[in-house]
Amino acid sequence: MERTKLSDNLSFSRIIQGFWRLTSWNLTSKQLVNFIEERVDLGVTTFDTAEIYGRGDAEIQLGEALKLKPELRSKIEIVTKTNISIDQSEETSFGYYDSRYDRIINSCKKSIKNMNCNYIDLYLIHREDPCIDFKEVARALNDLKEMGLVKEIGVSNFDPMKFKCLYDLTNKSLVTNQIEVNPQCFEHFDSGMIDYLTYKGIHPMFYSPVSQGLLFTSDEDIYLNSRILLSKLATKYNTTVATLVYAWLMYHPVSGMPIVGSKNIERIKEAINAFDIKLDHVDWYKIYTSSKQKVLR
Ligand SMILES: NC(=O)c1ccc[n+]([C@@H]2O[C@H](COP(=O)([O-])OP(=O)(O)OC[C@H]3O[C@@H](n4cnc5c(N)ncnc54)[C@H](OP(=O)(O)O)[C@@H]3O)[C@@H](O)[C@H]2O)c1
Fold first, then answer.
1. Distance of CA 204 to CAs 50, 103, 114, 253, Å?
2. pTM for this one?
């Protein structure tokens, strides 16, 4: 398995396992230990979660697995995220952001306790926040590093301007931006975020690489169009549609790390198979335009 160096202090497996849906998989702690070990055996050592996943239960479930098998901790890297809050006082709960200093410090400590993990390898601000004080966020992230509670810091879903604000205020120590990239989603190509990260040599984490599975199931035009083109190319490369998408994602010079959201080990293997695909340069553009949302000029 290729590894990606995020800093002198931290490297990740190029393919990452995502835990957004962990609580819906109904795994016992023992089954989750096995789940993690199976991936570690394949070289997938990095696991992505968030304070908000399963309303806190995803971190707790991971913590129970690590309690059962503490020696796993040194074999894996844990990514988690903060700043999404839910106000339960309303009849229907209301989601909002809280990126204030105390909230970040306390939620990091709580995540470490919930996950029984002693420290977090990479701690991310989960979403852009319209009421953010970048100086306070930078102070909190820097303090967490100083306290040894997190090894490295980063963000998720940030646009270039917001990324640059926090990057400068953290002494240029953000090591990633976790963003959605797949053949249907172009937000970060269009904003220049991917260009900026390429220029700075910062490697993004790519979430929803197969568009949350819609690439295989939806009959909406943007998915169907891509599916038709990708199926043709899959025959050319003697591979699967999913493997081709991972090859497309990893071909880009920004050297991003796809996060697989599936519970199924065979899907992880499909991602790993992408290392064997030598994608023709022209085919990268065919996949980029396959949904028919993009026209090259
Ligand atoms: N930072 C953020 O805001 C953010 C947002 C979303 C996600 N994430 C992270 O990124 C991870 C991945 O995102 P995602 O879950 O949306 O990604 P995804 O890998 O695009 O989607 C996974 C879903 O697609 C289904 N699927 C069907 N065929 C598949 C195939 N061939 N390969 C892979 N999956 C297939 C899976 O079902 P089966 O399980 O039945 O295979 C699963 O329900 C999450 O777990 C989370 O850690 C972060």
1. 17, 25, 26, 11
2. 0.96
